[in-house]
# Entry
Amino acid sequence: MSPHSQIPPAPTSVTPLFKAHGLTKSFGPNVILDGVEFEVPRKAIVTFVGENGAGKSTLFNLLSGIVAPDAGSMRLNGRDYRPHGYGEALRLGVSRVFQEQSLVGNVPVYENLLLGYEGRFTHAGQWLDRRAMIAAAEGIIEAAGIDVDVRRRTADYDFSKRQSIEIARACLATSHLGGIVEPFVLLDEPTSALDRRDEDAFFKLVTRIKGQGSLLFVSHRLTEVLAISDLIYVLKDGQLVARLDPATTDEKTLHGLMVGRERAADYYHERRQRPVTDGPALLGVRKLGRSGHFADVTLEVRPGEVVGIGGLLDSGKSALGKALAGVEPAEHGTVSFVSGPPEIPDIRSQVRKGLGYVPAERLTEGMIPAFSVAWNISLASGADLFAGPLGWWRRRRELATAARYAKEMSIRSATPAQRCARLSGGNQQKVVLARWLCRQPKLLVLDNPTRGVDAGAKEEIYRLIRDLTDQGVGVLLITDELLELIGLSDRILIMQRGSIVTEVAAPPDAKPTERELVTFMLPRSGTPGRSAVHQIPETLQ
Amino acid sequence: MSALAEAAPRRAARFAFDRNAIDASLWLPVGVVLFLLVFFSLATDSFATLRNFTAISGQAGTLLIACLGGTFVILMGSIDLSVGAVVLLGGAMSVTLLNHTPLGFATIPAVALLGGLLGLVNGTIYTWGRIPSFIVTLGTLSVFSGLALTILDGRAIQFDLDGFETIAIGQLVPHLPNIAFWALVAWAVVVVIASRTRFGRYMYLIGGGETVARTAGVPVTRYKIYAFMLSGVLAGIGAVLSVARLGAAGPSLGTDLLLNSLAAIVVGGTSLSGGIGGPHRTLIGVLIIAILDNGLNLMGVSQYSQMVVKGLVVIAAVLVSRDRSRTTVVK
# Structure
């Protein structure tokens, strides 16, 4: 190409690469996205920020064809874009890097890069031309500017390298092999698992790719968002609340836009919150750690106290809950529960001592949907339900217990014999709670106890938590819902990257605001881990 | 076949608490039994005779005992391929104990204990090694068979204890061989265990949602080992009884149990994915397999064609019972 060749400005450069109009999606009664309108300019990095549950993941699912919108339309390259499934989205030029990696570990890197494009490298339909494949893969790696030998086994590379490979595939395989001129790449929390050095490489890669197409980010890391984005959209409760130019905004403004809903004190029964007396601790945790998840966690829960744990998705708070319950035991440190000795607990001994654990994943860890309400309630019962050395099953007692709790907790099911799969999310969660209540627990570890639960059942669960604390039950509340965290907790511990960074008191008359909490959850700009991000624009200049 | 296909979603959908025993989907296998009875009665004269029914119950007895423990293993979502090999090794040990020790009738509990130990080996390797039960029991199948054939030296060995055969071929109930009688007793006991004890409950829970059970503090590992031990104990008892019935232990003892036991359990309606079904259904499955074997024999169908038919029956049973919409990856 001669330097003087006259390329007329393409008319497409005016139309944005992607445009969404009135996107709406609900699941049951919950409106997840409500008339979202936005556009993605060409060769740009656009970021969506928002709280957990603001609708970001659903938005990505719509864009990548995994779910279809209830209303609204999308245009890609000026053409109507309505993909049925991710395969079609990919063919049309929209690729996505999923949070969990989707590379096949046991094959060489080049096979992963060309996954789905093997047909271009075959003779007689079946014989793969290995040399041509390697050459094509090397072209992609070179364009991405990452240091990888495409002939090596994918699993030999560490997480961040594999992520770079995946991003290179999503961005460049489509344009090199799929005939897509300007790929549109969706990246869901791409840096959450990367350490500082890898982040540098990641930003370089992203900037290189920006020369080819456009990228759409979802990220919790606002410093990083401000550093690399050309355009920022703020999503709150399914609605687009702001469209910002990163040059003229700052983190504080973003926080303020992301949160700031009204909290109804009655909903969380805040007036029933009692000051906790300085008695002996019910649960004492000392320097608890599990590599790759959390480290050096020290905390106490006293009888009748609600201790909230907040943090971003990757903060390690759920893993901490699992370790305290003993489901996935910790590796270092000790836990002493009731009057027991300090130890690394396992679930059996914790349950025996009076701990109840409600996991976040209700349908896979919390309950067996194919089984009845009665069976799910009695799941953790022992000698009281199965008598004698033969473990003879006391049917009447089981049915009576199930019926009693179904009534007390107003679990709306016809009979205790009803299969749990047919219950609503709220009733299912009450069944999981009833399992522990019928054992008269001393401490409950609740991981997102109201996830997927309707507003009415939520309020009932909150009231139940107050009833329990009145009776001296301690509650460790791990939750992504900020309002719930603020409304229910006596104290709030904030976790960041596996460590507790702050404790915030939350007495009924002086509750912290969502904004304050979010500021604690997000990595501070001044901390060493973040400084690299600030240097990025300079290194790119 | 369309009737079978229509029944499929109902079977997958229905799992009623405490009414498990009278599940509507139970009627499908029962219907098959009735169909086979009518079909073979019309097809051959010698089928519907008291003598032949005595013969069928004798054949079905061993199969039923050997299948009962395996049903628990499948109910909790694992599989025990070594049942036939445990029977072979148990049979070899039986003749050895009967011929070379003064144990006499005490051979029965001794071999049952041996079976329990073999089950303990299976269960321990499976749970501690975190190896799929399919692989573990495929391996021990070979190990146990090899040991048994070494003991037998590849030959059939007769036992010499007068009256021992009566425990299998005597008739406490007229026209019902004792082996079938004891099998029914064992079946009744196992059904009670499944539906009325903690052990039985845990089998359903582990099969239906192992992670959930673990998260609720159910001692999953221990109960998995118990299930394999029970499978071994019952296979051991089955071994002594079939040795008593045949008068000897030979290299072919238990070889047909590998397919027949899995076939009976699955055809009866215990789901390979775990949590659904139970030993009460295995009785029906055993009847289907035993009647099919016997009827085809009487019709003069060759042994080889019978293998074809039985294989197809097993595949058809799984096809009918499986909720394919929920299975994404099959390995």
